[in-house]
Design brief:
heterodimer, A: about 300 residues, mainly alpha, B: about 300 residues, ABC transporter involved in vitamin B12 uptake, BtuC, 11 helices, 4 strands
């Protein structure tokens, strides 16, 4: 076993023991947003695409999971899969439109299309409008694991998170991931080497949307409701902030960023009220001006400097 | 002639006018975005928040210092422009050498700060700002009533947009500006102070947003949230029109406002999404935008 494997093993052990010490619902919330941010990082960190409408995939999957479980009586595992697939399909539609432009335009287009879907949810009858979709039952996973129990659900969410995290890691280090990085570094050169760049970008976008959807569906299962907030541009901004703060293009950055922001919001919500938005804004500004590598990126650079590698 | 396509002509023209009013805001805001983008290569996400700040400054001026509408129309844009200059000098100028996306992220953070501060101070419900006396009432055009204030909003926006176009396209100052947009290094080599022009351009661009905000104050409620929803529509307008041409921004803004107004008459459910649908169609047919150039 090398040091990396030991590190992962220790982290997993800590995650398995965590619900004894910390309120499991908070941990599950952190994992949902961490997964969401990891999916987003696949685009910004490894493909160089800034999607400013990623909340739409979180929100859509939340509604699909909620509706299919509550109204159609789907078991939870089927609801999760259906929701992730729905988000991936929406990602295919939005992605194929957005990749027609690049850079700043890409960001504006994803934001605008996400806003369009948001207005659709606002008016559609099945979403419950401003009230949201309430009282979604958690049900029994595979027919015998009772998810109404927070601790049971915690381990299911942990399993989902570990699976998705592994999948993203696998993608990043696969030949496909290498092509994505090549596109990020120099798109023109990737084209001249014969890669169908549009196809790669779209595939990355669909994958990211599907995984963001998985996060949204899991979140619905945890909180038993789906709301408009999840699809709002504010949430899109939040996931950008989590990834930026943790470190774009690092494996653990989005997880650290999500944990920091969720904990911060939890602590501050009842103390400062609407000033939370201001604090988020300040973190944004500070990160962009002085801290562009993010927490993990900076630590990584520090470690490299101290050990003298590179 | 009292109906058109089965809709009373009064209602039809009324919505069309309202659409034109919204279109004037789209035009003024997208023009500011385009001017800033041309010079700084930054998409100013704080544009909506600064538009809101313009309206808020007008409201604060009236309620705290008794400054009337006309003075506000001059002072609030100056104030917003000054905020812009401070932002440019203290933050934006450090980002020009980096990826353009950082500019978007920074201004997004600024938008959150501005919106959050005003929301903390004034809550989310709208604050009333009454229409100035000169513009109370309406003109009777025979086939419809035209509220005077709406006519003024359209006229004033068109004037400001046209003046901007004139300065940039027809004056020596505009020529320097266009030269600096095309090739900043060479322009600086000719002895023109490019960083100063960049600063003033950003100040001017956001002052346009502040001006639109003051115009909007009596037409709709002044609220801390008024900018954030508008800016997303304006982004769509910018994608549809492309940022290459100034007249293009103006025409696209007005046209989309009118289309949105007409949608309210015929199929109200789609009125909030029609601009985004048009954007999707334009992306399919002409990805560079109606007036844009493919780079």
């Amino acid at each position: 076993m090398n040091r990396r494997q030991i590190g992962y093993g220790l982290l997993l052990a800590a995650a398995l023991a965590a619900p004894v010490l910390v309120y499991p619902v908070l941990l599950m919330k952190v994992m949902c947003f961490a997964l969401f941010a990891c999916a987003f990082n696949l685009l910004i960190g490894y493909t160089g695409l800034l999607s400013f409408g990623h909340a739409v995939f979180l929100g859509t999957a939340g509604y699909v999971a909620g509706h299919s479980i509550k109204v159609w009586g789907f078991p939870p595992e089927l609801g999760l899969i259906a929701a992730a697939l729905a988000s991936a399909a929406l990602g295919w539609v939005i992605g194929s439109l957005a990749i027609r432009r690049s850079g700043i335009y890409f960001a504006m287009i994803t934001l605008a299309l996400a806003q369009m879907v948001y207005f659709f949810f606002l008016q559609a009858p099945f979403t419950g409008g401003e009230d949201g979709l309430q009282d979604v039952p958690r049900g029994k996973l595979l027919g015998f694991i009772d998810l109404a129990d927070d601790v049971n659900l915690y381990y299911v969410v942990l399993a989902i998170f570990v699976f998705a995290f592994w999948l993203i890691n696998r993608t990043i280090h696969s030949p496909f991931g290498q092509v994505l990085k090549a596109i990020r570094e120099n798109e023109a050169r990737a084209i001249s080497l014969g890669y169908d760049v549009a196809k790669y970008k779209l595939l990355a976008f669909v994958l990211s949307a599907g995984l963001a959807g998985l996060a949204g569906a899991t979140k619905t299962l945890v909180f038993r409701f789906a709301t408009l907030t999840d699809a709002h541009w504010h949430t899109s901004g939040e996931v950008v902030l989590m990834t930026l703060l943790g470190g774009m293009g690092t494996v653990f950055g989005p997880v650290v960023g999500a944990a920091t922001i969720v904990t911060l919001q939890n602590e501050l919500a009842d103390k400062v009220g609407s000033l939370v938005t201001v604090i988020m804004g300040v973190i944004f500004v500070v990160c962009v001006l002085a801290f562009r590598r993010g927490i993990v990126g900076e630590l990584d650079a520090l470690y490299k400097r101290m050990t003298g590698t590179r | 002639m009292s109906e058109i396509f089965g809709i009373p002509i009064q209602a039809f023209m009324g919505q069309l006018m309202l659409g034109l009013v919204n279109g004037s805001f789209y035009a003024t805001l997208s023009l500011g975005l385009a001017v800033i983008f041309g010079m700084l290569n930054i998409i100013n996400f704080a544009h909506g928040a600064l538009y809101m700040a313009g309206a808020m400054l007008a409201w604060m001026g009236l309620n705290y210092f008794g400054i009337g509408y006309w003075w506000s129309l001059l002072l609030a844009p100056l104030g917003v422009g000054l905020i812009g200059i401070v932002i440019e000098r203290s933050m934006l100028q450090w980002l020009y050498k980096l990826d353009h996306l950082y500019g978007l992220l920074l201004t997004f953070g600024l938008a959150l700060i501005l919106e959050g501060l005003f929301r903390d101070l004034y809550g989310v419900s709208g604050l009333p700002y009454s229409i100035p006396e000169e513009f109370a009432g309406a003109y009777n055009l025979g086939f419809m009533f035209l509220p005077k204030y709406r006519a003024w909003v359209i006229l004033a926006s068109l004037l400001v947009c046209f003046a901007t176009w004139f300065v940039i396209e027809k004056t020596p100052l505009g020529a320097y500006l266009r030269a600096a947009t095309e090739n900043p290094k060479l322009t600086q080599a000719f002895g023109i102070n490019v960083p100063l022009m960049v600063m003033l351009t950003y100040g001017f661009g956001v002052a346009l947003a502040g001006f639109a905000g003051v115009l909007a104050a009596p037409a709709m409620q002044v609220s801390p949230l008024m900018g954030s929803n508008l800016i997303i529509v304006v982004f769509a307008v910018v994608v549809i029109g492309g940022m290459g041409s100034i007249l293009g921004s103006i025409v696209t803004g007005l046209g989309l406002g009118m289309i949105e107004g007409l949608t309210k008459v015929f199929y109200p459910e789609a009125s909030s999404t029609v601009v985004f649908i048009i954007m999707a169609i334009v992306l399919l047919v002409r990805p560079a935008g109606l007036f844009g150039r493919e780079k």
